Amino acid sequence: MNNRRRRGIRIRPYTFTGGRTRSRHPLMLQTLVSVADPGTAPPKNLLPESEQIHRLCREARSVAEISAELKIPVGVTQVLISDLADQELIYIHPTITGHSPSENQVLERALRGLERLFQ
Amino acid sequence: MASNVSSNDKSSMVSTKIVIAGGFGAGKTTLVGSVSEIPPVTTEAMMTEASEAHDDTSSTPTKITTTVAMDFGRITLDEKLIMYMFGTPGQARFWFMWDDIVRGAVGAVVVVDVRRLADSFAAVDYFENNPQVPYIVALNRFDGELGHTVDEIREALEIRPGIPIIDFDARDRRSAGSALTTLLEYALSHPTKEPALAG
């Protein structure tokens, strides 16, 4: 367990993820994630990287922001988030893609927001 | 056991994304910087590229992992809706990354430097061949003059009829914002029927 602390930074990124390069959840660059229960500290058995993600996600953050903030490649970030979601530690927010007519209301809200900001 | 029914309203936050595409130096990052509420972030994206072995035509394609810098910005549109803007890498050799950046996008703005139209071919071509992603073309007015008519540009870049072409100044906040507004209006009036690409 203490070995983790001594791990060098040159370790290959996918070692964190057990070699997996795909997440099981639909995580796009813009997908927001936040901790399931903001009042709780991260469990002690998490990888340091997962713990950092857990701390960062007290506020909703996108996959891209988490990757940039923690300097973890996007693909690795996706796998770590997916694992945290499997453990029900974090919540994956819906991502609006505009591919379904049911999302039109949100797109209209987006348009109104843009008009408010830039007109 | 954590419940997935969260009572706080934070869980009702959703996000969306638009893509800012265009040739190298066309003004993509300038556009993002003009409208983003955070300084544009450059992050390393590690993507897997299916590449063909160029020295052995009989071999199966191999996968290599490549690291590419990617830009993005953010706009909070209301208390529960955040829009991200992602710039595509300008260099054609990062072409393979576009699918990852475009996946799930509401639409795209192709920024064109009219002094270097040829640099925009690749981006226009990509979206002409991906009709499930609504896009508009935004001509970046660097020196105040376009020098071409919109019709000439549509013809030169082979932009299909109906795709909005606007001119704007990427450095100007309102002007850059109007490009995003035009895209959203267009996306809303041209709903796509394709389902989202699977994970």
TrEMBL record, chain A:
It comes from the Bacteria. InterPro entries: DUF742. This is Uncharacterized protein DUF742. It comes from Murinocardiopsis flavida.
TrEMBL record, chain B:
Transmembrane segments: none annotated. The keyword DNA-binding does not apply. GO terms for molecular function: GTP binding; hydrolase activity. The keyword Nucleotide-binding applies. It comes from the Bacteria. Keywords: GTP-binding, Hydrolase, Nucleotide-binding. Gene3D superfamilies: P-loop containing nucleotide triphosphate hydrolases. Belongs to the GPN-loop GTPase family. This is Signal recognition particle receptor subunit beta. It comes from Murinocardiopsis flavida.
